[in-house]
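Quiz preparation item.
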């Protein structure tokens, strides 16, 4: 998946951007804040990448 991941350490938040879609995840524990137009499959992939790193 080609997307840009922005990590905000102070707030323990990640924004994932692909075209005009933006998903937001909290990091500890990893949980979805908003899906921003991504499909379920894309969200599973994104969450896996975040959990892995």
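Solution:
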């Amino acid at each position: 998946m080609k997307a840009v991941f922005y990590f905000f350490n102070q707030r323990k938040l990640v924004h994932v951007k692909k075209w005009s879609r933006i998903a937001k995840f909290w990091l500890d524990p990893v949980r979805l804040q908003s899906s921003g137009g991504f499909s379920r499959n894309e969200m599973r992939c994104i969450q896996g990448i975040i959990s892995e790193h």
